[in-house]
Amino acid sequence: MNTLKEWVFSTDHKRIGILYLVGSFAAFGLAGIAALIIRLQQYAPGMDVAQGQAYYNALYFHAAAMILAFLIPGLTGFFGNYMLPIMIGAKDMAFPRLNAFSVWLYLMGVVLALISMAVPDAPDVLWTGYPPYSVRTTANTAFYVFTVHLLGFSSIVGAINIIVTVACMRAPGVGWNQLPMLVWTVLAALVINLIFIPVLGAAVTMLLTDKYMGTHFFDAAAGGDALLYQNLFWFYSHPAVYVIFLPAMGVLFEVISTMGQNPVFNYKAAVYGGVFGVAALSGEVWVHHLYTSGLPDWIRIGMTVTTLLISVPVGIMIISLWGTLYKAALRYNIAMYYAAACLFFVLVGGLTGIPLAVVSMTVHLAKTAYVHAHFHYVMALFSTFAIFSGVYFWFPKMTNRFAETALGKAGFWLSFIGANVTFAPLFVVGVAGMPRRYWDYDQFPTWFASYHHVSTYGAFIMGAGMLLALINFVYCAFAGEKCKSANPWNSNSLEWTHTVSPPGPGNFLHDVSVPAGWSPYQYTAR
Amino acid sequence: MTGNKKIGWVSVLAGLAAFAVPAAVLAADGKIPDPAADWNHLFGHVLLDIIIIGVAFGGWGAYMLVKYRATAPGQVGQGPKLSVAQAIALAVIPAVVFMADDFYLAANGWVLWNTQRTVPAGALEIRMTANQFYWDFDFGNGVTATNEIKVPVGKPVVMRMTSNDVVHSFGIPDFRIKEDAVPGRKTFLWFVAQKPGRYLATCGEYCGMSHAQMGAWIEAVPQADYDAWIKSQQHASAPQPSNS
To answer: pTM for this one?
Structure first.
């Protein structure tokens, strides 16, 4: 009972981080099951696993839970809460009670998302909730709106807290140019969140009043405009892609630099060109989600240019990431396996996005399985593998135990192979015209079904791999091999050098201060 | 030092290779353009562009992942320490190369975009209204059709579209084109069928539980057959009471 009380009422950033992690993985598992239902239905034309409404309930839950309840909270919530304060030498967050508030808002949001699947007429509006459909449907769009509200408030509260923590609570000597990449990337992601989430909040609230209170923001017959919602929605939801992408890059920088015992290559370019550049451009590209919406031609070609230019800051980060491998002394643990897989995913996902940046290419590719495959590579697979990489990497810090088992390796290989088997075929049928969000496709050539067969097999292989990884985490948290030192990977970052594993209340035994010229990426031979 | 130079050269070469893809020639010269063929042509160039970048970075990454494994315990990496000039150069040069590739793609994309958005003179005009879950077509001469239409081969066809209920998206994969049908708005797309045949049009934007079954068939036939079909449709609809 006391243990329960300690967890529920805790304001300790590490416990809150663990709550975020547990909530994220729960959402991940459930949304993963929804994905398998989707894949089974698409296995062949005429399947009867989840037809019509049931299929769209599954799609809604899969996307909303994966993005809003797994990827964003997993990256900014878990890594931002557990690791970030220790990495800058702080004893806790700036506002510990606000922090507890944000995690419970988040967990209630996950619970609400689950309840919305159990009520009659579950939301069927996908995660985008486009009106007029979301207003006209008989399903409970309100559950969608309130889920977004809860998770959005949670993100705003968390963002303020972490931004203030980084600005005001760095240990003496830890300057801006000495911050670990994870801190920079989480910080940038949260600045983006803070600026753009209110827009999403406004959009879904207008949806709510349109549906239940008789307003007409999105009703063309009464002078409103359906496209207003699409603009507002993507004005947040495209930057949300970078809220996921940036911290995932941050995790990779930490893992690859430490496991390669090699400083981050061209650190200042990666921060001031890469991270800042992505954050600055993130709000100027949303129209590429509306390339076929009937917006004026000039804005569609204009945002083609801004979208393509995202490749510049991303390219600078990629060169730093690749450069960090140059002349490294790589040691392979499971975290490094996942990181190496991420390098592959970000290339495939990023480059297949280039045709989608160009409006005249996208008028064919939009809303096909090609888009589906592209963003699963760059957002779903890349970020999920980065989260797994990070959890493996910091596992000894959180539990004082290793998770380096044969089970974990098997989980990695199954996930990696399954991921590619699932999504590579979707590029091919996508270019041939297979639309997204179809639970039946018997009007298409029969060869489409063969590709969907393969994709469904891949999904189950990937699911098995992810399940093994989760089992491995739980098993090793209690029975994994004990660590002999508090710094098994020989890092120079404060969470490894200045604390025991796991860190106790207040994190550090003594107040932290670092000498001039200290860097988290200074490695010394042992 | 030589290591640094090597990195610089590899990044420059990778970028230049991507940029040196031959420019697409998409001029129409007064003939009726064929946007679907132009799309395939440009997609081929873009694929080549991304394959070159992908192979360069993928190969470079895979090589380093294998080559730079630690050989002894406790070893540290020997990555170069960059001078300020090198650090700036290694950010600015790739940025310029990426930007050049971006503008190259944007320019070629723009040429095709102009083709896609300029309806050729004399195009056959069809008004289309989307509904949950079917497509209504109005040829403007008393002929209307639902989900099944005929069009003449080789003649540009422009669809003027709107929706009666929710957002739909009219896409014809074989013609490489798609545009949403939005309530309260008028949108358009145009295409030209080069060969006779039955072409599938699908709904691209999620519109409800039967979204997956909201298809239409466009049958391209020779002009004479098309004229005969229109006549027969007019004849078929003649006995019905007229609205006017």
So the answer is: 0.93
